[in-house]
Automatic annotation (TrEMBL):
One Pfam family per UniProt: DEAD
Species the sequence originates in: Strigamia maritima
Record-annotated membrane-spanning stretches: none
Keyword line: ATP-binding, Cytoplasm, Helicase, Hydrolase, Nucleotide-binding, RNA-binding
Location in or out of the cell: Cytoplasm
Recorded GO CC terms: Ski complex
Protein name per its UniProtKB record: Helicase SKI2W
């Protein structure tokens, strides 16, 4: 301290650039008073103060970005600054680190460096490597997103760029107006100074060394080569092409046959074990199964069946599998193992089902087993980020089209009940999803037994370019026995006859006994008269029905055949039959009745008091306490779930259900009863198909409890036919068939993503699989024809080269017109109209050996499939019999006859022959007819002389005289009159053909080529070339997109969209209305038109709900407009007007979906409009049920589906920037989302934790 000098001089130093100062010892000999700086050279020139930055922005508004107009209140003109182009953003990293994991354990093994490809966004890339979107859209995606590249589909961008560049003329093909713009750049050629090219300048090809090994591709050769990928660094060079030695062999080959038309019905038998893309696995027990998979992802308490073992082995290898097995065989085991595999690999699984009820049931089952499970349906969204997501196929389709980021993590997609692809309305959804799934997703398909699983698997494999392994088993875990029940109560209640035993053998003895028993009953009921002959007359009166059902249930209870599922194809009769058994109360014990009552009251606790007292709720409680349940679409959803749970717990002994109960989780019973084997399919009554019967009968037999399942068919007034029984019980199930059809939504969604065309999806559908399999054959044929055409001799005649090609075209048109006429006339003759063609008529016909000759009609066979006309022609004696004509020779003879009508005349001894012809062999019909011709005698004599022992016999006089007359006519050749006058045609279409034909015949003499001395040779040569060219065109058409079956419908629908202004007419770009329609799930055209109608959307909330209910109401009610509330009638008229306009446009442009087109306006039903209006006006559910006879479950379903449409409309309103409409739709949705209609599913409540031991 004592050495410190307090008088040390100090000075000020500025710290940094924020104005802070401090004191430091002053520098020696420093006289300046300027403060020191902590930065010796002052502030860096790259930094500036906030004040200076703000001054620069205010004082230089011209530097504001012109495109960021959203933050500017006005626009300042700016002067271009070239130096701004010199600044380049830093490039992204060229490599990235990839995590490597052990798939069996999930442990981290290490990292590897990988080259980073260009990462786009969801708006410009279909790659899985694109940047993820907002977290809020990770599950549902966004309509503006591109979908991920479907598996099996090549990346189209680079290849298309290469192909397009090859054909671009940079002087004439460059655009001056960008697509979608109304104006563009004006490139004036006058502004570019012309550069004179020196005459002695050489082409770059001329500078290529003659001794080099390569030459540039010729233009025609380059087009045959496939465009190279950007990954290839090879130049477009190839060794010099040598002439193919096989071309010479093809010079003389003449293709005369028509290109074969692909016949779908004649496809090759699928008894084979494998195809290129599918293979049937030999299902035998795997003895070393646990050695192959020592650490299984999931285990069960029971031993796996062989088909389950094979399926799991292929799942471990990440293979596609198609599992076909009977109902209750254990297909769910395969799905469960896939979910466990995904959990082990830290990936996701999507389980799809055809109906929401099944989705809810599977959610509960999988939640108990695996824990991390979510569900996505139209009205339930739980745990959307779960590892296993349960959803309907429609939800998955929406996720695919909207590019959901969740799909990146999906390892397995499970399609349950995939045979539902046969559904006419919704089957197309399965095909769309299978086509659109990305490459990294593995597919599991679970199906009932079908006869063409290999064909279907082949389509999936070919579409995704992955092999599919078909694992099928015909073994039932519990065999079925089938009975006919003829009892009617009382003493006959035990009349149950076995007709098919457990080994699927038809018992004729039991069938005859059933016939005899039914004959006794019919005699009693009719007083000795014969019973009803109509096989569909199976109804009893109510008293008889009650007696029969009481006796049947008593028999089943005594025979230990309960519980039973009674399938009845009518909701009303389900309810009626259940009520007829309410007197039976001995099916449940007093303890069971108490448990049922307790559980029932607990499950309906969430309902309001008024809803708890609904008649259906009270009725169901009473029935369930007696062990009786009812299950169909008219039952309230919560009651259906209660019935299902009671049935699973064993409290329901008798269940009356419609066929939808067969599509669900494993709910087997001891017995299945068919009230009838006849159902109404919307068009009329028909017998059950084998697949329908097998699906429902498969619910009989509980694995581990029953040795066999009983299936009983009720015979009420008659016994079904034996043939019908055999077809149902032992017939083949329905084949999987494509129900692919284009929808407006599909077209608009694909149009909004220009990476792919609609044709790309059509050609990958199951509908086109047969034709696509023929593509390689067509390509080979086309290549062969091109070689023949290139090697064909060119015409060098100076006379024929002038107009022979045109003569071929004109004469071929004449031949086609005459063929059209002859086909009509000869068909009339086959039907009995003998005014023109009859026995004795003289024709000019074409033969392969004798050319043009006269033929005498001796017989007409009206029922012959081919060549129905037998004619007598002239030959030389002992000459060979004429063979059937080839099309090209017939055509040549007809064309030559137009120029030279010379007829065949024998040069040696006169002979004759009988040949069979059709209209194609007829050159012309003469006016000459031989009267009283004995055609049958001529034919009999001819057939006799074809035998060896009668070969030398002379012909009969009738044959001899007819031959001499033909010779005389041929020598005279007196057919100079206009033969067309003999064609007495009454059909208006063929009169027009006749009018076209007459003037064309007069133009033949004007051609110069007919004067050529070698005309016939040159004509044959030219026709050969024309024929080859036509076949090339046919094959090119077969290989083009225009040959697809759905293309006509696609073009028709596209015209409808253009006329409605959903798609721009000029450039086929999607318009504003089209973008709106992309957000709509159902009835996209109708909903869009209603949404953009200000008059409708300006109405009150209840009115909007009532009018929109017509889009979702599936109950056909009365059409009387007077029943509709007064304030709804105007809106109804507007809706019908819009629907009629859309229907008229579809008819105008020929939309092919006639099934829906015919009833387009009729499908918008307002029978529940008043009910929905009152519900949206806050009336209780019990009161609105009294307004209609429609069942409660149908009302609930209608309101729930209405809410899904309102959600779509709310999203659309948000996208188009209409907050008032968005608020209105949310308001309407809130009005209807209440009480029992939207009661929470019981399957999503009170779920226990998963089994930790599995």
């Amino acid at each position: 301290m004592e050495n410190f000098n307090f008088l040390t001089p100090l000075e000020v130093i500025e710290l940094g650039c924020n104005g802070r100062t401090d004191l430091i010892p002053a520098a020696i000999n420093k006289n300046s008073l300027i403060p020191q700086h902590s930065l010796p050279f002052g502030l860096p020139p790259v930094l500036s103060t906030l004040q200076s930055q703000l001054e620069h922005i205010i004082c230089s508004p011209e530097e504001l970005p012109i495109h960021d107009f959203g933050k500017c209140q006005r626009y300042w003109p700016r002067t271009p600054k070239i130096e701004t182009l010199f600044s380049i953003d830093p490039s992204a990293l060229a490599t990235d680190l990839i995590v490597e994991r052990d798939f069996s354990t999930g442990k981290l093994k290490g990292f590897s460096e990988s080259e980073v490809t260009l990462r786009g966004t969801a708006q410009n890339s279909v790659s899985m490597c694109r940047l993820p979107g907002p977290p809020s859209e990770s599950v549902r995606g966004n309509v503006s997103n591109l979908f991920f590249l479907p598996g099996g589909m090549d990346e189209p961008i680079f290849e298309k760029l290469l192909i397009d560049v090859e054909d671009v003329n940079f002087e004439t093909d460059l655009l001056s107006v960008p697509p979608g713009f109304s104006e563009g750049m004006n490139f004036d050629n006058n502004l570019v100074p012309e550069v004179e090219v020196a005459k002695d300048d050489k082409n770059i090809v001329d500078l290529w060394s003659a001794g080099d090994e390569f030459v540039f591709l010729k233009e025609d050769e380059a087009t045959e080569k496939s465009a190279p990928s950007f990954q290839d660094n090879e130049m477009l060079l190839t060794p010099a092409k040598q002439e193919d030695p096989k071309v010479a062999e093809l010079e003389n080959e003449v293709i005369m046959k028509e290109i074969p038309v692909v016949n779908i019905t004649n496809t090759k038998s699928l008894t084979q074990k494998s195809t290129e893309w599918a293979e049937i696995v030999d299902v035998t027990k795997v003895d070393n199964f646990h050695e192959l998979i020592p650490n299984m992802a999931y285990t069960w308490e029971f031993d796996l069946d062989p088909f389950q073992q094979h399926a799991i082995l292929h799942l471990e290898q990440q293979d596609y599998v198609f599992v076909a097995a009977h109902t209750s065989a254990g297909k769910t085991v395969v799905a469960e193992y896939a979910i466990a595999l995904a959990n082990r690999n830290k990936t996701k699984t999507i389980y799809t089902s055809p109906i929401k009820a099944l989705s809810n049931q599977k959610y509960r089952d999988f939640k108990i087993k695996f824990g991390d499970v979510g569900i996505l349906t139209g009205d339930v969204q739980l745990n959307e980020k779960a590892a296993c997501l349960i959803m309907t196929t429609e939800i998955l389709r929406s996720m695919l089209y909207r590019g959901s980021d969740t799909l990146r993590d999906v390892e397995w997609v499970i399609f349950d009940e995939v045979h539902y692809i046969n559904d006419h309305e919704r089957g197309v959804v399965w095909e769309e999803v299978l086509i659109m799934l990305p490459e990294q997703v593995n597919i599991i398909m679970l199906s009932a037994t079908v006869p063409n699983e290999l064909e279907f698997a082949h389509w999936v494999g070919k579409t995704k370019k992955r092999k599919v392994y078909v694992i099928r088993t015909m073994v039932r875990p519990v065999p079925l026995v089938h009975y006919l029940y003829t009892g009617s109560g009382g003493k006959s209640k035990d009349e149950n006859f076995l007709i098919v035993n457990s080994k699927t053998k038809f018992e004729m003895k039991g069938y005859k006994e059933a016939l005899a028993a039914m004959a006794v009953h019919q005699a009693k009921m009719s007083g000795g008269r014969a019973g009803p002959s109509n096989k569909f007359a199976m109804r009893l009166n109510p008293k008889q029905e009650e007696t029969m059902w009481n006796g049947l249930i008593s028999f089943l209870d005594k025979s230990k055949l309960l519980p039973v599922i009674c399938f009845i194809f009518s909701r009303d009769r389900c309810d009626q039959n259940a009520l007829r058994l309410r007197s039976i109360d001995n099916l449940t014990t007093s303890k069971e009745k108490w448990i049922i009552k307790t559980k029932f009251d607990k499950w309906i606790q969430q309902l309001k008091d008024s809803d708890k007292n609904l008649p259906q709720v009270k009725r169901m409680r009473s029935l369930l306490e007696n062990g009786i349940g009812v299950h169909h679409s008219g039952i309230l959803p919560i009651l259906k779930e209660i019935v299902e749970m009671m049935f699973q717990d064993g409290f329901v002994k008798v269940l009356f259900a419609t066929e939808t109960f067969a599509i669900g989780v494993n709910m087997p019973a001891r017995t299945v009863i068919f009230d009838t084997v006849v159902k109404h399919d919307g068009k009329g009554l028909r017998n059950l198909e084998a697949s329908e019967y097998i699906q429902m009968a498969g619910r009989a037999g509980r694995r581990g409890e029953d040795k066999e399942g009983a299936v009983i068919i009720l015979c009420k007034k008659n016994v079904p036919d034996e043939a019908d029984m055999r077809n149902m019980m032992m017939g083949k199930p329905t084949r999987l068939a494509s129900k692919f059809r284009l929808t407006y939504a599909m077209i608009l969604k694909l149009f909004s993503r220009k990476h792919f065309k609609v044709e790309d999806i059509i050609k990958r559908s199951f509908l086109e699989i047969i034709d696509s399999d023929e593509q390689e054959s067509f390509k080979r044929q086309l290549e062969k024809l091109h070689n023949i055409r290139q090697s064909a001799q060119q015409l060098t005649c100076s006379v024929c080269s002038v107009d022979l090609a045109k003569f071929c075209i004109e004469s071929r048109e004449i031949v086609d017109l005459k063929n059209n006429l002859h086909e009509y006339i000869l068909n009339c003759a086959r039907k009995g109209d003998s005014s023109i063609i009859h026995v004795g008529r003289v024709l000019v016909v074409s033969t392969s050996i004798r050319g043009c000759c006269l033929g005498l009609v001796v017989k007409i066979s009206p029922y012959a499939r081919e060549n129905p006309f037998k004619v007598l022609i002239l030959t030389e004696k002992d000459a060979p019999i004429a063979e059937n004509e080839e099309n090209m020779i017939c055509e040549l003879n007809k064309m030559k006859y137009l120029v030279d009508d010379k007829l065949f005349i024998p040069e040696s001894l006169l002979g004759h022959s009988l040949i069979d012809i059709d209209y194609k062999s007829v050159i012309t019909i003469t006016t000459i007819s031989l009267k009283k011709l004995e055609g049958e005698k001529i034919i009999a004599d001819w057939n006799k002389r074809q035998q060896i022992r009668f070969k030398s016999d002379s012909p009969i006089e009738a044959c001899h005289s007819s031959t001499r007359e033909l010779l005389r006519l041929s020598e005279e050749n007196a057919f100079n009159e206009d033969l067309l006058d003999a064609y007495k045609v009454n059909d208006i279409d063929h009169v027009e053909v006749l009018d076209k034909l007459k003037p064309k015949l007069k133009t033949i003499d004007k051609f110069q080529c007919i004067n050529c001395p070698h005309f016939e040779i040159h004509l044959k040569q030219e026709m050969h070339n024309v024929n080859v060219d036509q076949q090339i065109q046919k094959l090119e058409f077969q290989l083009s997109d225009d040959a697809l079956k759905s293309i006509p419908d696609y073009k028709a629908r596209l015209e409808v969209l253009k006329e409605l202004k959903y798609v721009k007419t000029s450039d086929d770009l999607i318009d504003f209305k089209g973008k709106v329609a992309c957000w709509i799930s159902n009835h996209e055209l109708m909903v869009t038109e209603l949404l953009l109608d200000d008059d409708l959307m300006s109405k009150k909330g209840p009115e909007i709900a009532a009018l929109l209910s017509c889009l979702v109401c599936q109950q056909k009610g009365k059409k009387d407009e007077d029943d509709l509330y007064e304030n709804l009638r105007e809106g109804r008229s507007k809706v019908i007007e819009i629907a009629k306009r859309i229907e008229d446009l579809q008819k105008k442009h020929g939309v092919q979906d006639q099934e829906s087109l015919r009833d387009y306006v009729e499908q918008f039903d307002f029978c529940l409009a008043n009910v929905v209006y009152e519900w949206a006006s806050a009336r209780p559910f019990s009161e609105i049920c009294e307004m209609t006879d429609v069942q409660e479950g149908i009302i609930v379903r209608t309101i729930q589906r209405l809410d899904e449409i309102l959600k779509d409309l709310k999203k659309v309103a948000h996208v188009i920037g209409n907050p008032n409409l968005e608020h209105k739709m949310e308001e309407v949705s809130n009005l209807i989302r209440r009480d029992i209609v939207f009661a929470a599913s019981l399957y999503t409540q009170d779920i226990n934790e998963p089994n930790k031991n599995s």
